[in-house]
Design brief:
Main location: cytoplasm
Number of helices: 12
EC number: 2.3.1.-
Structural class: alpha/beta
Family: Belongs to the sirtuin family. Class III subfamily.
Mean pLDDT: 88
Largest sheet: 6 strands, parallel
Strand order of the largest sheet: 5-4-1-9-10-11
Enzyme class: transferase
Shape: elongated
Protein name: NAD-dependent protein deacylase sirtuin-5, mitochondrial
Number of strands: 11
Radius of gyration: 21 Å
Low-confidence stretches: 1-36
Distance between the termini: 48 Å
Length: 313
């Protein structure tokens, strides 16, 4: 059922993106392609668009959190012990060795408890607070599971890949916030990332357990693992927000992880301005109206600062 719902949503997103391009007249399509081939880095022009926007969608990825010192576990050197994230963040890995997977996530949770939002997170949260007083809205659609947006104060947040600080029971399915450190006594002092560290081999009964009455089922991190589908309810909320937004920002994302990589091109295809803030160009850059290279913590705050036309009550 989840798969069919996800496929339906994904097909609709793709269909909207490509049908939107085909629906334009040939002259408009040619003009659109020319514009998309040369994204602007003119901040003054972006600020004029920003000043008029009523519903702003901000899509964020690992790049925004990397500036807070969050390990990405991607690319060369992206290992925890001997494994890369894609070898541990799977249902099969958890079924084979729940102790090892929990050590990995315990390490990530403990690291995140020591990290703080950077200027990009703060700028987004401050922008949301300020614009809400003007009857304007900001929604953050994030691929990150670190909760730094929440810690910065963002309220309207859609976490499409889940959260490090939520658990889901493999028995009863209950989902709960969990900020315990350590998450269970057996994991105290465990999870060291060094390659020579041996597995703790913690018995299943000593791993995090469900606290619902009479359950005691094994808990797993409430995150979307490789090979799993995104929550169709969350995708539906994302789709609703993208349908009404009149400005979209793509911040610190490579635009290669699907289905999130479809979101901004879908918005751009219906003529809505999209601005990309990233260290470098991505496969989607030429489909957007604006591109601002550099650290998000440097480029984003001035982009989202109060515009001179804003009336603060």
């Amino acid at each position: 059922m989840l798969m069919s719902l996800f496929q339906l949503t994904a097909r609709r997103l793709v269909s909207q993106a490509y049908c939107g391009l085909k629906a334009a007249s040939s002259s408009k399509t040619q003009k659109l392609r020319l514009e998309m081939a040369r994204p602007s880095s003119n901040m003054a022009d972006f600020r004029e668009v920003f000043a008029k926007a009523k519903h702003i969608a901000i899509i964020t990825g690992a790049g925004v959190s990397a500036e807070s010192g969050v390990p990405t576990f991607r690319g060369a050197g992206g290992f925890w012990r001997k494994w890369q994230a894609q070898e541990l963040a799977t249902p099969e890995a958890f079924a084979r060795n729940p102790s090892r997977v929990w050590e990995f996530y315990h390490y990530r949770r403990e690291v995140m408890l020591s990290k703080h939002p950077n200027p990009a997170h703060v700028a987004i949260a401050e922008c949301e607070r300020r614009l809400s007083k003007q009857g304007r809205s900001v929604v953050v659609i994030t691929q990150n599971i670190d909760e730094l947006h929440r810690k910065a104060g963002t309220k309207h947040l859609l976490e499409i890949h889940g959260s490090l600080f939520k658990t889901r029971c493999t028995n009863c399915g209950n989902i709960a916030a969990n900020y315990k450190s350590p998450i269970c006594p057996a994991l105290a002092g465990k999870g060291a990332p060094d390659p020579e560290t041996e597995d703790a081999t913690i018995p299943v009964e000593d791993l995090p357990q469900c606290e619902e009455d009479g359950c005691n089922g094994l808990l797993r991190p409430h995150v979307v693992w490789f090979g799993e589908t995104l929550d169709p309810d969350v995708l539906t909320e994302v789709e609703k927000e993208l349908d009404i937004c009149d400005l979209c920002l793509v911040v610190g994302t490579s635009s290669v992880v699907y289905p999130a990589a479809m979101f901004a091109p879908q918005v751009s295809a219906r003529g809505v301005p999209v601005a990309e803030f990233n260290m470098e160009a991505t496969p989607a850059t030429n489909r957007f109206r604006f591109h601002f290279p550099g650290p998000c913590g440097t480029t984003l705050p001035p982009a989202l600062a109060r515009h001179q036309t804003e009336i603060i009550s």
